[in-house]
Amino acid sequence: MTTVTSALPLLGLRFTAGPLELRGISDDLLGPLADIAVAGIHASDSMPFYVPWSTAPGEVLPRNFAQYHWSQRAALSPATWSLDLAVLWEGELVGVQGMSTKNYLVTRTGETGSWLGRGRQGKGIGTAMRQVLCAFAFDHLDATQITSGAFTDNPASLGVSRKVGYRENGVRRVERRPGELAVVQDLLLTPEDLVRFEHPLEADGVEAFRGLIGLDRNRY
Ligand SMILES: CC(C)(COP(=O)(O)OP(=O)(O)OC[C@H]1O[C@@H](n2cnc3c(N)ncnc32)[C@H](O)[C@@H]1OP(=O)(O)O)[C@@H](O)C(=O)NCCC(=O)NCCS
Hints:
Bound molecules: coenzyme A
CATH architecture: 3-Layer(aba) Sandwich
Largest sheet: 9 strands, mixed
CATH topology: Aminopeptidase
Shape: globular
Structural class: alpha+beta
Order of helices and strands: HEEHHEEHEHEHEEEH
């Protein structure tokens, strides 16, 4: 019988590595993740994201958050996809780790992005979840490289990139919030530079996800 997971195998992806679990963001996780975001991801005077979604008032953020994830699912195709995964640490929901890409069958590259609730930051979880997603992309999705970018005033994100093995790949000047200049440090990771998480990665749902994004096309 067809289920929402068999129709969209993104939702059936699940990785485990020691205390860490990453899994597709099914609808039942949208509310709890939005609650973590409403409770706070960063100080009110800072903005780590290109789109300042995290400062929306608490009464609208959950809807915006759910609609964003539904829009990403709705638009998913081999030409454009976002692999957004809920992150659990020792069984508790703590944040989101993602990778998005365009024309992946040709480019074999994706851009990582992530967030954790404030109470879960600074404990190595951000490093572990990025290590696991990058290992998945290299080992199971045939990625050639992975990129990331962080504002130069975001030492935690830059710290994760440094620890995972990304190299600096130029800077860009952008308008962050209206009238505000910010500088983005671009970063680039290759398979040989990846510093892996200490626990091995086990991944479920890989074959169906590869089919969804157009890899192994002869089988689907
Ligand atoms: C970015 C984020 C995911 C990193 O995850 P994290 O679990 O906090 O990071 P880690 O604990 O794995 O730290 C990684 C490195 O950065 C360093 N670091 C973390 N927070 C830091 C801070 N506030 N200032 C300076 N260095 C910091 C750590 O010391 C560590 O290096 P070390 O082990 O050599 O000491 C998390 O902080 C977060 O969600 N921040 C808000 C949202 C955000 O910035 N998202 C990314 C947008 S590009």
